[in-house]
């Protein structure tokens, strides 16, 4: 029995870990790596294993850095089952199709402007073939994956349908318990139920995205949104919010809806400009069983926490393009969250040099992404092959992060400390992993490591 860390090892994004037991090979996640465009394409195109050798996939959640390379896996010959929660399956149906569409659209745009463009990794036919392999399993129900391999999903509280994955691996008379956290949510998520207490395990693979940081208080979110909307109203400018279509967008809209209900939101047009965000919000409405008690109580008075009079969702490209010609004040929420693809690039391209614009970044920005360069205060940035001077104000808000911070991760992992022989830190940058390992060591964790890309460990 062994595990090989094929993706999200000493980096964030591209989650992929191979578990081998009883002659079978099971992938935990199969995500897209996000970063420098050329490097990301090459990493995603060159899979680190033969897809035909994989017998099953256990998917923690639908975010593209965890699910986004499943169609490539299928395109290259994978024919096993993909196990996930029902909400994750429903989100993947729209997110993977959107990923295929964005790859094709970005390539078309770059060619139109005389730039080199890589071929899309996969198309809609590959996505359709992928969705046929999904098998939905409820939370906390133990099921057989393959002979000698059983699993169960535990609510991770990160996004709709997100899960930690518990594995029971048996060879002969020996059984090993392996727990993969996926991405861990906050103790009090904005919309969702808090994470389940993780089950006892012999080995733990944990995310570490915010292993070196503490988040701002969630209560700060309302104040920041209120202040920034008031600012762009006074400047008659635009507030541009890059937000992941799944999870982050719904949280932003929920807070704006709350401000509206309180009568504290200025009369300003608010546009969610992302077909995927519109579809994902519909999926959220389909799964109220995932919401926490506070949201369900609020829905007794407001049946739709994701809609109000001054808010509209756009789908067509013409609607999106029309926003560029409209003056402020206006709030635009658009994807992708790290500013690497999609419509947000066009909104930034058209507004980044306007000093009346404010760009609000939400949460972690991976290395080498446009979002990271903006967060780090770059004076000039390249967007869709052109260089622009950054004259817009750039703000960063970490209180809306759907990831647990250092202390929250420590508390989440605490029940596992006395049973786990070893803790592997993944899905984090080396500095964050080092700081988290130090903190865990001070609390009695005796064996913690951050595996190198491609490293294999015998269990």
Describe what you observe in this structure:
The chain has 459 residues and is of the alpha/beta class. The protein has 2 domains: 269 residues, Ribonuclease Z/Hydroxyacylglutathione hydrolase-like (Metallo-beta-lactamase, Chain A); 178 residues, Rossmann fold (3-Layer(aba) Sandwich), CATH 3.40.50. Helix content is 33%, strand content 23%. It is built from 14 helices and 22 strands. The strands form 4 sheets. The protein has a 7-stranded mixed β-sheet. Helix 4 runs antiparallel to helix 8. The longest helix is centred in the N-terminal third of the chain and has 27 residues. The chain starts with a strand and ends with a strand. The model has no long low-confidence stretch (mean pLDDT 94).
Biggest sheet architecture:
7 strands, mixed
Task: Figure out the total of helices.
Answer: 14
**Overall 3D geometry?**
globular
Percentage of residues assigned to helices: 25-40%
CATH evolutionary superfamily of the largest domain: Ribonuclease Z/Hydroxyacylglutathione hydrolase-like
Could you tell me the number of beta strands?
22
- Radius of gyration over all CA atoms, rounded: 21 Å
Mean pLDDT: 94
Oligomer: single chain
**Which structural class do you get from the secondary structure elements?**
alpha/beta
Domains (count): 2
Report the uncertain regions.
Answer: none
CATH class of the largest domain: Alpha Beta
Strand content: 15-25%
Would you tell me which CATH topology of the largest domain applies? Answer: Metallo-beta-lactamase, Chain A
Looking across the biggest beta sheet, what order are the strands in? 6-5-4-3-2-1-22
The separation of the N and C termini measures: 5 Å
CATH architecture call of the largest domain: 4-Layer Sandwich
